[in-house]
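Appendix B. Raw example, untouched.
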Amino acid sequence: MDIKVLGTGCANCKHTIALIEQIAKEMGVAVALSKVEELREIMGYGVMSTPGVVIDGKVVHAGGVPSRGKVEHWLTA
């Protein structure tokens, strides 16, 4: 599963990465997690509010830290 966190380095972006890493580890799900900080690339996904989360090329979240339940749902889908 390829997950990208879109954001310029704010605290919420860092928290989102940590949350996804923690939940993936707890669930035993292998993920390739990367951070996209380049504004042009973020806007290329149509995300105007960060942090954004892209899973396997599809934007699944934008604006604010996702809830734990939301992340768990992504990782089981």
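End of appendix B.
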